[in-house]
Amino acid sequence: MFEAITQNLTEALGNMARGKLSESNIRDGMAQVRHALLEADVNYDVAKDFCDRVTEEAVGEQVLKSLKPGEQIVGIVYRELVNLMGPVDHSIELRRGEMTVLMMCGLQGSGKTTTCGKLAKMLKEEGAKPMLVAADLQRPAAIEQLKVIGEQIGVPVYAEPADRSSPVKVCQNGRKEANRQGCNILILDTAGRLHVDDALMKELIEIDNRLMPHQALLVCDAMTGQDAVNSAKSFNEALELDGVILTKLDGDTRGGAALSVKAVTGVPIKYIGVGEQLDRLEQFHPDRMAQRILGQGDVATLLETA
Amino acid sequence: MGMFDKLKSALTKTKDVLRTDVRDLFKAGVILDDAKLEEFFRGLVTTDMGVVAAQSIVDELKAKFGGRTVEPDDVWGVVKGKLKEILRGEGDCNWDVTDPLSPLNLAEEGPTVILVCGVNGVGKTTSIAKLANYLQKAGKKVVLAAGDTFRAAAVAQLTMWSERLGCEIVTKPAGTDPAAVAFEGCDRGVESGADVIIIDTAGRLQTHQNLMQELGKIHRVIGKRIPGAPHESLLVLDATTGQNGLSQATKFSEAANCTGIVLAKLDGTAKGGVVVAIREKMGIPVKYVGVGEQIDDMELFSPDDFVDALFSDV
Ligand SMILES: Nc1nc2c(ncn2[C@@H]2O[C@H](COP(=O)(O)OP(=O)(O)OP(=O)(O)O)[C@@H](O)[C@H]2O)c(=O)[nH]1
Ligand SMILES: Nc1nc2c(ncn2[C@@H]2O[C@H](COP(=O)(O)OP(=O)(O)OP(=O)(O)O)[C@@H](O)[C@H]2O)c(=O)[nH]1
Ligand SMILES: [Mg+2]
Ligand SMILES: [Mg+2]
């Protein structure tokens, strides 16, 4: 299945790169690019708009008159994809003399708790003193899970009994405890929630208002399909996200959600999760992601020969 | 103006289009032209059914009704009829609304074993709790086996559910071979005269070969302990999943011979359309849908309701 798409795209781009270009075969080729983007789970509107723009640019005189027009189009497709997803600022700025607060949010099961652990480990290795806060009082054993993770990486975890606390309260008390222990980063692990669940979205906004996180990070499953735009948009409207972390990229998903989420929210993707282990966090690279969405190695080869 | 800015402003314009209802597309008397068909294609793709399936439906509509005035009932009849037919399959799965256990293959004799697998975070453990609840309500005695010995506090999570359900659970320390937990779960089920044994497994991505082999081993060990088991091998899919669902269904079936799908998280805005492609290509039926995080947030799958829901507020 993936081979077929990759082949189509390779053919389309290859034909464009080799052959003589006319407006009509540019349009045919771009239709194939659009097909490939949809198969990679890029949202329909995002894919369509992308292809319309590139087509417009490509049929422009400059390209048709250039020496190697086909190659130029291949380049445009790739470059515009990269531009769309970049530039990326990977830094998590530490506040001087003040607690830096990071808040994770996202749909159920997207990888928030694991990513909290990964970030804490990374920051600790960079010399910071993080503390994790178990603000998911909802899912069975969510607190236990964060505690196990904290133990694995040697980072303190602040938690309160689920039946005698509230997410806001545990976050506020967590900050006090972090101050007391001399920590300088507080990472809030919130419960998974649907973007259409008004009560739970309100709860998240309340944490946001009370704790004023320096970064609100959306954790998004890279296997998400067309719906990625809907959830990302809602979380962004509620919280003004500072970044996105895309998880589970260690599988064979093409990861079109990356393009969709960035396009509809404008929020940069900062990190990617590439495994369950707590050291499996990497910086996001738009160029690699563009290659992955388009079919990995093949596009790279085409670009090299182009 | 950069490409990105252009795209952003264009998307603000299409924002409202995102909310259009596909049901309004085919109004009586309008001509079914390419623009209408493209808009319908968009609606189909948005359900995550995949470009190939969407294109074949659009092609069929074009051949049958292209350029003619629309009779909404005819057009919808073709579209929904085709999808319902695919999802229903050839009588290999039974969804009887009066009997929530109807889609399950139960053992003729002795305990039924249900193995539950899927990629990370899709809803396996929660679906097991929901399923156990169904079974207990039907008077069945259930034993759970906490076969996820890898993820932090996965055993604690299933244990909490078993306490709420009041059913027996077999656990072993973190890091134990999951096949050993499955084996002991079967043992325990047989000994205690359980009707159903449900085995949880760790989430795994289908491309990690060692983990898929581990799943294969769990499957084999169960069969060694109880011939003919597992009687059900359920793949849990997240309704937000896109085209990767096909790869999941393919590779999990290779390892664990999946007999049914639980489509979790259908309570969001995602449509879960990839199950259409999975049913068509691989024949695996959806048996249940998850519609929330609580224990009774599960429903029997219904091909008809599902297809109707695909087109509401796409
Ligand atoms: N393969 C892989 N698995 C991941 C990755 N990140 C998280 N996971 C797994 O995904 C599953 C869900 O992760 P959690 O961290 O519990 O997700 P969550 O968002 O906190 O879930 P809820 O709190 O229930 O909403 C677990 O099995 C994790 O091990 C990743 O980058 N790759
Ligand atoms: N909204 C909604 N959430 C669900 C549904 N099913 C499960 N969840 C939530 O999804 C998250 C993950 O569920 P789990 O049952 O832990 O998933 P899992 O597949 O066992 O995860 P791993 O064992 O980590 O791979 C939890 O927060 C659940 O509460 C559902 O049908 N709807
Ligand atoms: Mg969590
Ligand atoms: Mg689980």
Automatic annotation (TrEMBL), chain B:
Residues annotated to bind GTP: 118-125, 200-204
The entry's keywords: Cell membrane, Cytoplasm, GTP-binding, Hydrolase, Membrane, Nucleotide-binding, Receptor
GO cellular component assignments: cytoplasm; plasma membrane
SMART domains in the record: AAA (SM00382), SRP54 (SM00962), SRP54_N (SM00963)
Localization in the cell: Cell membrane; Cytoplasm
Enzyme Commission numbers on file: 3.6.5.4
Catalytic activity: GTP + H2O = GDP + phosphate + H(+)
Sample GO molecular function, one term: GTPase activity
Gene Ontology biological process terms, A to Z: SRP-dependent cotranslational protein targeting to membrane
Uppermost EC category: hydrolase
Main localization (coarse): membrane
Membrane topology of the entry: Peripheral membrane protein
Domain SRP54-type proteins GTP-binding: 285-298
UniProt keyword annotation of DNA-binding present: no
Subunit structure: Part of the signal recognition particle protein translocation system, which is composed of SRP and FtsY.
Described function: Involved in targeting and insertion of nascent membrane proteins into the cytoplasmic membrane. Acts as a receptor for the complex formed by the signal recognition particle (SRP) and the ribosome-nascent chain (RNC).
Family, per entry: Belongs to the GTP-binding SRP family. FtsY subfamily.
HAMAP family attached to this UniProt entry: FtsY
Protein name: Signal recognition particle receptor FtsY
Organism: Maioricimonas rarisocia
Higher taxonomy: Bacteria, Pseudomonadati, Planctomycetota, Planctomycetia, Planctomycetales
